[in-house]
Structures are given as structure tokens and as C-alpha cells.
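Weekly modeling sync, notes
Attendees: S.R. (lead), two postdocs, one rotation student

Agenda item 3: backlog of single-chain predictions. S.R. asked that every request posted to the team notebook include the full sequence so nobody has to chase files. The rotation student volunteered to paste the first one in as an example of the format we agreed on. Action items at the bottom.

Example entry:
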Amino acid sequence: MQANQTALLSIVVPLFNEEGNVEAVFARLQQLEEKLAPTKLEIIFVDDCSQDKTATLVRDLCRHHDNVRFIRFARNSGSHAAIMAGVAASRGDCAMFIAGDLQDPPEVIPEMLDRWRQGYSIVWAARAQVLGRKQQESLFSMLYWWMVLFLTNLPIPKLGIDFFLIDRMVVEALKPRHHCAMPYFMLVAETGFKSTLVFYTKSSRAAGKSGWTLKKKLTLVLETLLAAPKALRILSLAGMALAAAGALALAAILIARLALSVTSDSALLVIGALSFLTGLQMTMLGLVGEFVMLSLKEARRAPRYVVAERANFPADEPEPARLSAAAHQVTSPAQKTVARL
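Predicted structure, as returned to the notebook:
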């Protein structure tokens, strides 16, 4: 695809109690659209059941701007569910998401679009630097991405990713999987489409308080573990190793008592070992139980999110002409023709 051809870019913005950032995000995206011309923007705000004025502000934007869409959840379902819902509802030739707190600067989007035009179906964006970030947050991020790379064989950059841009073909490939409870970036990586990486400087939060709590971080870790078969395999191997170690320890004690006539009060050692083994077994059973529950939810097709409200999604509006990754790699003028919105 040539740079001067019209394309529609869908930008999903997940929101949770972001009343102080909604208007600023929209203003930045409006300024960006002027620089991206003739590329047009479709902005999809997804409200994860905010408790402040976030929904009211987005509804007002929808009344005044035809390219602004709005989805509101009936209950809080998490940022990955919000991204999933927004991407599934997108109509663009390509789609992406950025954080609603403006930590992901929209100014990196032109570079990502250039990579998409070069034929990449997935454009990952990874932080090269983080402004105003606490050391413990950086440590969690580093450990989390190490875990992802260790437990999966997904083509994810070693430094991890923060957001991405995906081609229409990837969006369509992901649509049937909207019930899956695994992290959305893992679903994207699993498609196997051609990918590339851009770097950017992550900004400090513009306003408000982060909703990225410890509970949500641990939930993300658990979802990642449940989506990685290697995690269950490691638990099985750990169980076999502990069983072997226990057998050797029992043999050593019997030999010491019978052959060497060694007697000692090892009650505390035995109690400690049993406590450790019991705790480990309970952890293993808990993870297996979570995996079974997840499988049951998938079998029942339990929805990951429930939409309570949609705005500016007219049913009678025709679908825009779309470009695929294959389409913007060809050289035929006829194949490059795209209907303008």
C-alpha cells in the first residue's frame, strides 16, 4: 500500500475511571489525524464499567464526532477484555489500542503505520524508556515477560510489548476466539502473522490514579500460567522430582537407622519437610483446579465481557473497503485501489 492511499485505522482506547484523560486523549488523536491524512481514524472508547464521569464524557464526544464509537461493559472485566471488545468491533483496515492514561504516546502511531504499509501484519510497540516509573513496577514487568518467554514459544520480543497494531486479517482471525480467557497479546502472537517491533518512550500518567492494582497483576500472571501448557508440564516434573527426593530421603533414613544404628530427633525436620511438600501439592492442585474451571467456562461459552451500551455503531452503515496484509504488498494498481470513506 502506498502512503498516499486512504486507509481507515481503528484505535481502541480502554478506559477505567479516566475522566481526567478522556478529552486529552481525544485531542491528541485529533491532532494526529491531521498529520496522517489521508488516513482516517476510527476511535473506539471502551469503558470498563467506570465509577466516575468517564462514560458521560465519551457519550458527549460521540454526539459531536461521527468517528468516535463507545462501548460500555455491564461489569468490570479488565483491560484485556476491553481491548478484545474494541478490536472485535473495529471496522478499519488495521486496528490498534493505546492506554487511556496517555502513557502510550499517539506520536508513535505514524511509525507503526509505516511498518504496516511495508507488509507487516503485526507491529509490536515496546518501551525503550519509562518516565517516572517506580522500581518495583519495572521489576514486576521484567519478571513477568521473563516468565512469558520461558513458559511459551510465542514470537514475542524479548523485552516484552506494551501495545500493538494489527492488520485486518489478524482481527478477523481473532474474532471467533472472543470467549478465550487468555491475555490478548498471546492470542495475537499465536496467529503467527509476520511481525516487527518499534520502540518508544513511555510517558508518565497524565492524570488520575492507575487502576493497575496488585490484584490485577496477579490475575494476569495466573491467566498467563493457565494459557501456557509448559507450566503444567513443569508442575508434573516438579512433582516427580519431589517424589524421587522423598524416596531417596526415606531410604537414607532407613539405612542410617538399620545399618549404622544412627538415632536422632528429626521431628522438626520432618514437620518442615511435610509442610513444604503439602503447600507445594496444594499449589499444584489449585493451579490444576483453575485450569479445569477455565476449561469448563470455555465449554459453556461463558462470555468474557458483557456489553451494556454501544454508541455510534449504526447498523445500516456500510462496511468500509479494507486492505489486507497481502493487498498492501502487491504491486498491481488494480489491487492497490481502495475505496475512500
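Discussion: group reviewed the output briefly. The chain has two domains: 8-226+306-336, 229-300.
Action items: rotation student to repeat for the remaining queue; S.R. to check formatting next week.
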